[in-house]
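User: What would this chain look like folded?
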Amino acid sequence: MKHISIERNGHVLIIRIERPQVRNALAPQTYHELSKAFDELEADPDLWLGILTGSGDQAFSAGRDLKQLAAMSCASDAEREEESKLWRQTTRLTDRFEFSKPMIARLNGSAHGGGLELALACDIIVAAEHVQLSLPEPRRGLIATAGGVHRLPRQIGTKAALGYLLTGRAMSAQRGYELGLVNQVVPASELDQAVNEWVVDILACAPLAVRSTKQCVMQGLNYPLPTAMRLRYPAEEARLSSQDSREGPLAFAEKRQPVWRGV
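Assistant: Here's the prediction, encoded as structure tokens.
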């Protein structure tokens, strides 16, 4: 790993973009390494949730590495093929529509373009109060095709989203909180404590119940309410037959804390 680092802390996988010299910009190699980290998180039954963050205190991620993108315009055929091969081996978080593990975006700094799209694909966003958020792609002749043009309207409403999407304007973390985009805004010195509180509360829940809840919410949004409530959800069927589904009521009856096993 050259562009990211990963750290296991119990049931938590901490994924950190390690490119502070370019404000944690996202090159194809960065996306590829992130893809491998998300593969590890999803595949390991002992990992129950992930935290995604950036190195330093200035940027979560400035988005797509535009200098690298510009350099590819005069790259050789061999270089283009090498990059194409890398993309074929990469599945971005923004494209993992059935990713089962909960993800917390720890915004240590500003999130722009593809960086904000990564955060939008997470389930919970905790931001330092100095953070700025934007999808400035139209100012570069681009658009936010990694989900930004679709996720932002769904998360803050059409009119508010278009105000930012059509102008490339930035919003503060506090404004993101007011619009329902950000779950919590804290001083930078309290960011780790705030994220840890979310982690503790999630880990207090049965992991299969958390995954079932996430699947029901995300898939159910595609249907009218009566249909969504009648659908069969694989994660819920797994939870119903799990040991943890029996452990919860048993622990309550015995007046003790449940011991979750994730099975």
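The chain has a mean pLDDT of 96. If you want, I can go into more detail on any region.
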